[in-house]
Task: structure prediction
Amino acid sequence: MFDSLGLLIVIILIAIVALGFLLLFFRFFGLWFRALLSGAYVGMGKLIGMWLRHVNAGIIVDSRIMLSKAGIEVDSDMLETHFLARGDVIKVSRALVAANKANIPLPFQRAAAIDLAGRDVLEAVRTSVNPKVIDCPDTSKGKHTIDAVAKDGIQLQVKARVTVRANIERLVGGATEETIIARVGEGIVTTVGSAASYKSVLENPDTISKTVFDKGLDAGTAFEILSIDIADIDVGANVGAKLQADQAEADKRRFQAEAEKRRAAAQAQEQEMIALVQENRAKVVLAEAEIPLAIAEAFKNGHLGVMDYYRLKNIQADTDMRTSIGGTASTDK
Result:
């Protein structure tokens, strides 16, 4: 009895396992059969393993079929690895097909690295085939012209267009479009700033593009510059005259401040002299106040007689009369 029960349990377990494998087989049979007919064979075991590793087997099979039809051989394990690394397997496969059709050497490892670096590898291949035009400056940042000032002080407002082609080999670690725009803007400012007159720049605007292009601004970037074209040049403000006017105004204020400083110093010195005069007058009054005391002391010691004092008073009265007459005469005049 127990042998029969054990045998029944074993048969049930085998049936369950067989049913599970049968369900898995029917679940992945469509993908397996499609890959088999397309010449991009993926084993049933790999499909089940993808399911266990939470890999979208449909994406892997579709990508492998796409690459196989294009004559590109990429193992399913490599596609699965890129999927597990959070890469876009479909986009990488399309980029490989596009590069193959355009005769652009692009191995899977490089395409996967570009995709994992955050770059649009498919757009990079398209840009490599069909060059892209970049506006300089970037109008989306709110700036519409590159302003530069020639040596004569006249401002020029320049718009440029840069035609670039993606450099697949430098996409990983290469600078982006913002670097191209910044370098071209710097080249334009330098070229206009070194011009003796703004008129020479207006007469030959192609000198800007030639000078900037010859500097090799695409070094270290993910692009190759094909051409730099000046779209528009406008004459702006007379910056030199404005700077001179501002400098003159600043000099005037400085001189006014210095003059005010000297005036204040002169007024302070004048007040000091007035105070000194008052001090000397006070000393004179003090000295005159000592005269009667000296006369009294002379009388007391016998050094001054009555007639001497009488003659002194006559002299003082005569002096006061002359002073009074002289003052009246000067006032009448």
